[in-house]
Amino acid sequence: MACVSSAFVLFLLPFDDLGAMAATSADKSVDTGMYEKRRLLYESIALKSGLDWHFVAAIDQYERTMSRAHPKTRPISENAVSGVYVTESDWSGDLNPETNDSNPSSIRFFRGIGRDGSGDGVADRRKDEDALFSVAAQVAKQGSAEDDLAIGLWEYYHNTRAVQRVMQFVMLYRHFDRLDLSGNAFPLPLESTYSFRSTWGNSRGWGGKRIHEGTDIFANYGVPVKSTCYGVVEMKGWNAFGGWRIGIRDLNNLYHYYAHLSGFDKKIKMGDIVRPGQVIGYVGSSGYGRPGTQGKFPPHLHYGVYRDRGLVEWAFDPYPLLRRWEREELKSLKASKH
């Protein structure tokens, strides 16, 4: 059920891929009314399932990121409040002759996961309440303690990455206690001296034949590097290619990668929650060698973005995003001065 392989494969796609564009801008188009509808839905499902609403929200958000990444195989209505998608066979049961079964009793007999979450006596997989309650109930089968829920997530998704993502989203929702975490920031102070252009796909010379998977922002040593998003610090340390680097996962299931740093903010550690504009490190020229290697190229920030699709992780060109965040921040600064 909802089996997503834990195999990790990296794909590189140009930013004009429609799926990538939708993935990065989806939450910016969500209005306040939709967040209110989601919050009411999560609180309702929380009461019925015995789960914390933050946990219900995290499951739904992970499902939403998968539905956005696979719109052809996980079609969701544009007006849907929930992002959950369940196949007909999983919903009704593999041996159920009625593939569109909506009778809770017969679904249960054939061991389908479909449940009546709205209380109308019908288990309709196209209904937000029913779909989300059904998945939440599956995950909660082992119990409502944190470890039990992690086991429940594994048994539903059969994917350690899915378990990690949901638990990261739970952390974010609990920390901020709200659903709207869609703000962004440009990764360097606008008052600093910097320059960048699109370097997506350029060839790289060190470490074998490969292409550039992000945008280089050239700046002086020690210029603060800021988080571009609300997220969880997923990776921090040395990488032979990226030097001192840090990786942050946001609620859109995007992995923001900051490389070639001269150092990290002293308070930042793995598992920390960050917000847009928070300093996480400093521009440097580390990398292309053993831990501590510096100066093999001019100081700059390498910024990359990767999208988790469950089966694969793929990179796309972050240059348009950086330009947009730069413009938005400049516009906000000008408005604040008037």
Automatic annotation (TrEMBL):
Signal peptide from the UniProt entry: 1-22
Pfam family of the protein (one): Peptidase_M23
A GO MF label: metalloendopeptidase activity
Domain M23ase beta-sheet core intervals: 211-309
Record's keyword terms, sorted: Signal
Classification via SUPFAM superfamilies: Duplicated hybrid motif
Domain of life, source organism: Bacteria
Name of the protein in its database record: M23 family metallopeptidase
UniProt organism field: Cohnella endophytica
